[in-house]
Amino acid sequence: MEIIRRKAGKHMKIGFTGCGNMGSAMMRGIIASGKCAAEDIMASDTLPEALRCRKEELGILTAADNREVAEFAEVLFLSIKPQYYQEVIGQIRNLDLQEKIIVTIAPGKTLKWLEEEFEKPVKIIRTMPNTPAMVGEGMMGMCPNANVSKDDLLLVQDICSGFGKTEIVEENLMDVVTAVSGSSPAYVFMFIEAMADAAVADGMQRDKAYRFAAQAVLGSAKMVLETGKHPGELKDMVCSPGGTTIEAVRVLEEKGMRSAVFEAVKACVGKSKGM
Questions:
Q1: For residue 127, which of 155, 156, 100 has the smallest C-alpha distance?
Q2: 218: helix, strand or coil
Q3: How far is Cα 80 from Cα 77, in angstroms, rounded to an integer?
C-alpha cells in the first residue's frame, strides 16, 4: 500500500484536534489502509487518558496543545464537537495556515462562519462523516471553499477513502447530508434493534436475532448500491402476492414507518441548520 506523498520523497503529515469516537475511527482507517503512516499523524485532546490510549493503540504522535498539532499538520482535521469550534479556531488562527488544508466535521458550521472565525484566507473543506467509518464503511459529504484547489480536494478525498466513501456536494445540501448520512446510522440501529426484539419475542436467541437482522440490512444496502435498481423495485421483488412479506409491509405502512422516517430526517435537517 502506498503512503500518501504530496511531494516526491515527503510523507503527508496529518493532524487531529480531538481523538474521540469519530477522530479515532478516521485515524484507524487511514493507518489500516496505508494512506498514512502512524508516525505521520499527530492528535491532541483535552483528556490525557484518551491521548494515551490512542498512542498505545495506534502508535501516533500526541500533543496536549492544539497549536502544536496545527503546526505539525499539512492536513488538519478539526475532529471536535460543534460547540468547541470557536475556541479551537481561536487557538490556531494566528499560525501560518496558508498552505495547510483545514477539514471540519461539525454540523451546522458553514464555510462563511468558518472563514469569519479564521479572520484570514484559509483552505477549508467542510465535511460530514458518519460512524460506520469505524469499520471502514463510512460515508462523507464534502464541500470545499474557494481557496481549495482541485489537487487539495483530491488529496483529502484520497485520505478519507481509507475509512469509507466520499461525495462532493453543494454547501446548501450539507445539512441534508447530516440527516441522511451523518445521523442515519442511529435510525438504522433502531430498526435492527426493533427487528431483533420482535425475533426474541418469538423465541430466537438475542445474539442470533442481531446477526440475522444486521446481515439482512447489510445485504439490502449492498443490493441498492450494486444493482442500481430503485429501492421500491427491490422491495417488490421480495413481496410475493398474498405472501408473508407484503403482510409485514402492509403493517409498516399502516403504522406510519415511511412518514416517521421522512419526518425524522426533516427534523434532523432543521436541527443542523440551527446549530
A1: 156
A2: helix
A3: 9
| CATH class of the 5-171 domain in this structure | alpha beta
In order of 2, 87, 93, 101, 147, the CA distances from 119 in angstroms are 36, 14, 7, 15, 14
Q: Tell me the pTM.
A: 0.90
What's the confidence (pLDDT) of residue 9?
Answer: 39
Domain limits of the chain? 5-171, 184-273
Q: What is the C-alpha separation between 89 and 63, in angstroms, rounded?
A: 17
Q: How far apart are CA 252 and CA 269, in angstroms?
A: 24
Q: Residue 129 contacts by C-beta under 8 Å, 6 or more apart in sequence?
A: 22, 25, 26, 105, 138, 139, 140, 160, 163, 164, 182
Q: How far is CA 191 from CA 94, 178, 252, 257, in A?
A: 47, 19, 12, 10
- Write out the three cell numbers for 19: 481523538
Radius of gyration of the chain (CA): 21
pLDDT > 70 fraction of the chain, expressed in percent and rounded:
96
pLDDT range class, residue 172, cuts 50, 70, 90 = very high
CATH topology assigned to domain 184-273: ProC C-terminal domain-like fold (1.10.3730)
Strand partners, 41: 14
pLDDT tier at 6, thresholds 50, 70, 90: low
Does this chain's domain 5-171 share its CATH topology with 184-273?
A: no
138-144 vs 123-128, strand pairing mode:
antiparallel
* Cell numbers found for residue 70: 496545527
Tell me if 231 sits within 8 A of 249, measured CB to CB.
no
